[in-house]
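User: For this week's homework, look closely at the record that follows, marking any run of repeated tokens, and judge whether sequence predicts the tokens.
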Amino acid sequence: QMADPFLYNTGERSHYGCLGHEVQIEYLKAYVCRPSSSTDKAVIVVHDVFGWRFPDIRYIVDLMAGHGYITICPDFFKGTEPWKSTDHWADFPDWMKNHDPMKVDKEADVVLKYLKEQCGAKKIGIVGFSWGGMAVHHLMLKNPQLTAGVSLYGIVRDSEERYSLLNPTFFIFGEKDHTISLDQIFLLEDKLKQYCKVPYKIKVYPGQVHGFAQLKPEDMKPDDKPYIEEARRDMIDWIKMFV
């Protein structure tokens, strides 16, 4: 049995009734939740391998909207099948080849245009989880329209150009994440110190495994709950500081 390369246990999940609605933007579907008061600030949420319909991600979208941001989670898989917990790990590398988190630039541009032209957004942040964390790291190196980013347990691994961030970026990791070793985190920190010209932050949460921060309250284990809540507060504080 191969260790799950990415995932936390998705079996035990409670139902979630969403607060937002689905929209079609050009060739992309997206889930949008608006805050109660009008604003020109927006946040893009990038889903993990389970896709834009996964309840945990919609919960995060609604959470951000509750903090006063027009929040949107587009389908970065463009209508193709997300990974499912019943799929076989042996097939994961092939699935990843067809779902490359570094190939999200076009979708990001479509969503940025929609937020600016249809929603009146002037400042736009981005947060992403796992697969989405890699996409956020990539986009924060490439797209200056994104005012600030938070990457949760996802990093661009194999590029020497991965340290010249364009805007403030916060990296959140779990100490017990078996997909991202502490060595990789120390290397990232070291290189950012050398090359990065904008504010950045790296934080490791004790005892936490990959995927810890997007659990809904009723799915949290009591020991993990303080760290999950802290990571979410930290994510929101970073966005509030810059967006």
User: Anything to note?
Assistant: The beta strands are 21-25, 28-33, 41-46, 70-74, 123-129, 148-152, 169-174, 200-205. The longest strand covers residues 123-129. The radius of gyration is 17 Å.
